[in-house]
Automatic annotation (TrEMBL):
Residues 159-188 are annotated as: Disordered. It comes from Tyrannus savana (Fork-tailed flycatcher). It comes from the Eukaryota. GO terms for cellular component: cytoplasmic vesicle. GO terms for molecular function: guanyl-nucleotide exchange factor activity. Coiled coil: none annotated. This is MTMRD protein. InterPro entries: dDENN_dom, DENN_Domain_GEFs, Tripartite_DENN.
Length: 188
């Protein structure tokens, strides 16, 4: 699963290399608007006649991609690193399948670590009910909730949270690396 996702991550990193150099931040409105200059992106990569890429850039998914990833100051992730710093590595691996597979496995491992930051905590799977279990009559009714106990637990939790430091999110915002300009990439 993670290796397939890593392959698609590499594919989209190759496809959109240099997209940040074609973003325009328009500050006329109260909220800045981010515009992607499609013609410049396609022209600099020599792909004006590429029907597939043109359709991808005109799609709603790409518009969402630009609005989400366009801001110059936000939390960076693995995709940003690939687009900005791994351009040469991806290009060099095109003719060397073992190196490409090694890189895909490294990316898959990073994806796994991102999703499972605490691998020592194992989640137990809930077993499937046996066949015909829904026909059994010995199912116990759901117990009634003790309102007094619920209030006690809420008060205890509030008392503990007031003394605790505020929770911070793990994502640190930074300036998104632009990567190399679009014109330095080979045609697809």
């Amino acid at each position: 699963d993670k290796e397939v996702r890593a392959i698609f991550l590499r594919l989209f990193a190759q496809l959109f290399q240099g997209y940040r150099s074609c973003l325009q931040l328009i500050r006329i409105h109260a909220e800045p608007v981010i515009h992607f200059h499609k013609a410049a992106f396609l022209g600099q990569r020599g792909l004006i006649e590429n029907d597939f890429l043109t359709k991808v850039l005109n799609g709603m998914a790409f518009a969402g991609f630009v609005s989400e990833r366009g801001p110059p100051f936000r939390a960076c992730d693995l995709f940003d690193e690939l687009v900005a710093f791994e351009v040469e590595r991806i290009k060099a691996e095109e003719g060397n399948p073992p190196k490409m597979i090694k890189h895909v496995r490294e990316l898959a491992e990073q994806l796994f670590k991102n999703e499972n930051p605490n691998p020592h905590i194992a989640f137990q799977k809930v077993p499937r009910p046996t066949e015909g279990s829904h026909l059994r009559v010995h199912i116990l009714p759901f117990p009634r909730i003790n309102e007094c106990r619920v209030q006690e637990l809420l008060q205890e939790g509030l008392a503990r949270s007031q003394g605790a430091p505020p929770a911070t999110r793990g994502d640190k915002k930074c300036v998104v690396p632009a990567g190399p300009p679009v014109g330095t990439f080979p045609n697809l």
